[in-house]
Amino acid sequence: MSEDKKEQKKEPFEPKIVGFLCNWCSYAGADLAGTSRIQYPPNIRIIRVMCSGSVDSMYILRALLEGADGVFVGGCHPGDCHYIDGNYKARRRMVLLQNILETLRLEKERVWLRWISASEGQKFADTMNEMTAAIKKLGPNPMAKHWDL
Amino acid sequence: MTKKTTPIGAVAVIGGGITGVQASLDLADMGFRVYLLEKSPTIGGVMAQLDKTFPTNDCSMCILSPKLVDCARHENITLHTLVDVQSLEGEPGNFTLRAVQKPRYVDLEKCTSCGSCEDVCPVSLPNAFEYGLVKRKAIYKPFPQAIPNAYVIDKEGDGKHRGCVDCMRCVKECKSGAINHEQKPEELTLQVGAVILAAGSVPFDPVVKPEFGYRRYQNVMTSVEFERVLSASGPFQGKILRPSDQQHPTKIAWVHCVGSRDAAVNHEYCSAMCCMYTAKEAVIAKEHAADIEPTVFYIDVRSYGKDFDKYITRAKEQHNVRYVRSRISEITEDPTTKDLLITYEDDAGELKKERFHLVVLSVGLCGAGEQKHELLEKLGLQANEFGFLQTRLEEPVVIRPGVFAAGSLVEPQAIPESVMQASAAAANAAALLKDARGTLVTEKQYPPERDVSSEEPRIGVFVCHCGINIGGYVDVPAVVKATQALPNVIVVEPNVYTCSEDTQKKIVDAIRTHQLNRIIVAACTPRTHEPLFQKSLREAGLNPYLLEMTNIREQCSWVHMDEPLSATEKAKELIAMTVAKTRFLQPIQEAEIPVTQKALVIGGGIAGMTAALSLADQGYDTVLVEKESCLGGYLQKVYYTVDGLDVAAVLKQTVAQVQQHPRITVHTCAQVTSLKGYVGNYESEITTAQGTVSFAHGVVVVAVGADEYKPRSYHYGKNPRVLTQSELECWLSTCTSQDIQKTETFVMIQCVESRDDKRPYCSRICCMQAVKNALKIKELNPRAEVFILYRDLMTYGFKEKYYKQARENGVVFLQYDAEKKPEIEAKDRGNLIVKVHEPMLGELLKIPVDHLILSTGLQPNPDNPAIGKLLKVPVNDDGFFLEAHVKLRPVDFSTRGVFVAGNCHLPKFISESIYQGQAAAARAATILCQSTLKAEPNIACVDEELCSGCGVCLTVCPYNAIDRVTKESDGKSVSHASINEGLCQGCGTCVSACPSHAIQQRGFKDKQILPMIEEMCST
């Protein structure tokens, strides 16, 4: 059954995006997109975390190694972090991670970090539209192929 | 003498709608016993009948149901349904309330709500909950989520239709012997310290307006009936059908102000919420069926609340709801097609006749006192001229000492106002009975927790249809089937509404029957519903943190409505990911943290002062911090109100009360410069001219106000004849009679630089300011001409009366379109001419003026973003604070322990600020009344074996919650990190910083998150 599914998924390319959203801002923003019925592509799978600062780089790398085509990390706007400054830490970690992606020959555009507040349902949906389109353009994650061998 | 005796620590709440429910929950959480008395067989009120709520389009039942279940489960709330109140005697603190408990004929303890009685009942009569659109039996349950969750027998019928015929078939059918036709009315006597009246109001019955054809034409229905049509659990299962032929109508018209703003039925008030629910019904109807063409016939669109204007704009622009400004005088029917014909005047003034398949009458509310109302009569209470139980502006929820009122019994209003008044009434009762707090309460006892550590995971998954909110787009049976195949999943059950009380029982039963030890609820967002389901786990003897939720509504059905296949696949995958995590969930025991039973109130305007007084009156030491040199805030700029409130006296008295209160410390010229800690344990630094003081407290109320916006247009600031409304108010209060006699023409322009792209919100108060000042001008100089140029006149509720009064006094109201704003022409010597295009006349009017008055509304305090950062609470796009939930948590923030009141939440009137201040105090007191709170569950924990004691985590922890401890082990000293469970707030920053994965966050451990990633990537 899973084989059939893979067959179906080959065409057209529908990227698989994993999203780590902080409980206080981005997850609430995604909720607001829902209650406002703002439509966006169904490519993201959201994992709720308490703070963007808790998103271990290992999670992001693991997702890419396992075959995710993109990873989205959503946090509170600078200065708005529920835990004072977790989002700044997420941002610093992201810069370091970009270097690692380069050594893996992965496009750094596969990993997005964005600030989305609890009142920005529209922005969340817009970001999902943009990211899905951007990853579609990049094509499937080459690492996924590598691991398939 | 009697005053010295301790009051009774119990409160009777009369009326079980959302208002009564909120008041009951607050009081019960503040340490009082509550008797919730409801006349009908179930609590929930009108809100239970609504489909969605504006402006968020939340499912009404979904947000209400957890509160109803909480009421039913609360140890300190005793619920009495089918109760008629008879009398109230005694004095504040010690009342005797007598009531009659009418027979239900069904034993609440025994009824399992199985419904077999209903199947055999031969009597069928109109279902009142569905407004007679369908029938029900004589034995019935009002609605699926009814609380109490039990059947009831209707012996009386509804006048036209007979009720129970005593055939006794139900008695034979009932397996649990719950039915007793011999039940007799019983007398109920309650000793209480205070009473809260929340008996609500009833929708207007348009039968008395024959021109609309209601009941004559089948396809004319009321807006409340249409709510049921929209509802998935309604008569048509959420399909939009019209009554005459059960066909799908495409052209639907809504007619505003039916039974409101109408002298013919003696309803010269605005019902305050109809404009918004009409927009919502039109938008939701379109969401149900894209081919619907909604048309709204309106007089004004009163979008005066938070984000209301944006909602109307969205309705017009995104959902193509057509708005036609025209008062409808008659509806006729085409007898062959049963279509309806509406004649109206279009923008150009031409008469048009248009055909509609269905017409919805947007009905207003009727006051309880309009018809003979037993409750008011028996309690000897007087209704106002409109039939409502009006209160005084300065004491908006007080009827008399010990007797409080809230909700639409007081004035027509929407849900957030009712909820705030409910909390405010609870605060007043709590202050009166503070010496008896905690005397009549018991603590909830849960069964002991089952030790599941040695058990294999046995997962139960409950998949919610949420009516059609999920089930209409996600193929729930397919999701159930796919979930059944997942490892460790023992049971998968679909539910219509997983949040209803009977489903909670089902969950508890399933846990016990199948020995489940992990639970997944695939429904809506955990941000609103997790606590409800966690309680169900506790009732079944499971640790509440063995629950996970999958959000297949906000993340699937509501955002992928056009792609049901993808939505279904996504739902399956999200549940599979949750199962992967849930297999590794472990129980969590929270630490107990002490609560500092003191409050900090930021902002010394009327809202902040009221909140401080209410907290202090309830017995909590409170510090009030005001930025300016004196207390009063914006109220100092208000000289009079239209309804004759002596503003200066109220201000003076409130300031004196605050300053003299032994439990209040006031700091003026002061600012909170630092705030550390968390709910129950804050430490603030307050900087004043004298220096810095620190203060330990458990909660924060933010009430930092707003100020009048100073415009840039219309020569303001350049021409002395151009003033803002509050500057005019000041001038009118201080000018000489000669000054005013000299001034002949005033023109007021509403919505100046407001409700536009830059400031897309309505400031709620400016229309009334204009009306108030216009009436004042006419009082001082009856010869003066006053023109008010407006877009929509927002005189909601009883304020409509003054709009009428102004028109009668000769004030000229001219409506203008947002696209054709009035313009001015400056003449010599500063004379001004206002040019306005009047759509009704179709002419450009030129008015020479002596004074041009600009209604600019309020702008948020520029400090809000900084204060928001300090308190870790959000500010919305307009710059006002964003509460936890616009409908049901209007004074709370998502951040526990922080509350909001007054103009910093949204612009509002004095009485609204007063009751919101009291409401914030009530919500804050639910925390302050406890000596300890449960600490955050999702805190970090250290694996000492793995920890090398490197100390990286110490440097990243924002709360200094990690220490390095050194131990002797095998003769060597080894160090490792140690978490202070009281200080850790569970952000997880240390977890991602730890180089050896020695720190893990409870509920978000690597071994819980990584399986989700693997699961997702494996499909």
Secondary-structure blueprint of this entry?
The complex is a heterodimer of chains A (149) and B (1019).
Chain A (H helix, E strand, L loop, with lengths): L1 H9 L6 E6 L3 H10 L8 E6 L7 H10 L3 E6 L10 H18 L7 E5 L5 H18 L3 H7 L1
Parallel strand pairs in A: 1-2, 1-3, 3-4
Helix pairs in contact in A: 2-5
Chain B lengths: L9 E5 L3 H12 L3 E5 L14 E2 L4 E2 H14 L3 E4 L2 E9 L2 E8 L14 H5 L3 E3 L8 E3 L1 E2 L11 E2 L15 H5 L12 E7 L1 E4 L4 E2 L16 E3 H8 L20 E8 L15 H15 L4 E6 L9 H10 L4 E4 L5 E3 L6 E6 L5 E6 L1 E6 L1 E2 L7 H6 L18 E3 L2 E3 L9 H18 L26 E6 L11 H9 L4 E7 L5 H13 L4 E6 L2 H14 L7 E5 L1 H5 L6 H19 L9 E3 L3 E5 L3 H12 L3 E5 L21 H14 L3 E4 L3 E8 L2 E8 L2 E7 L1 E4 L3 E3 L13 E3 H10 L2 H6 L2 E5 L16 H15 L4 E6 L9 H9 L3 E4 L7 E4 L5 E7 L4 E7 L1 E4 L3 E3 L3 H8 L26 E3 L9 H19 L3 E3 L5 E3 L9 H5 L5 E8 L2 E8 L9 H5 L5 E3 L4 H13 L1
What would you say this structure looks like, in words?
The complex is a heterodimer of chains A (149) and B (1019). Helices cover 48% and strands 15% of the residues of chain A. Chain A has 149 residues and is an alpha/beta fold. Chain A has one domain: Rossmann fold (3-Layer(aba) Sandwich), CATH 3.40.50. In chain A, helix 2 crosses helix 5. With 1019 residues, chain B is of the alpha/beta class. Chain B has seven domains: 187 residues, FAD/NAD(P)-binding domain; 80 residues, Alpha-Beta Plaits (2-Layer Sandwich), CATH 3.30.70.20; 163 residues, 3-Layer(bba) Sandwich (FAD/NAD(P)-binding domain), CATH 3.50.50; 124 residues, Rossmann fold (3-Layer(aba) Sandwich); 164 residues, FAD/NAD(P)-binding domain; 152 residues, FAD/NAD(P)-binding domain (3-Layer(bba) Sandwich), CATH 3.50.50; 62 residues, Alpha-Beta Plaits. Chain B has a six-stranded mixed sheet. Chain B has a five-stranded parallel sheet with strand order 15-22-16-17-18. In chain B, strands 33-32-31-37-48 form a five-stranded parallel sheet. In chain B, a hairpin with a 2-residue loop joins strand 35 and strand 36. At the A-B interface, helix 2, strand 2, helix 3 and helix 4 of A face helix 13, helix 14, helix 21, helix 24 and helix 25 of B.
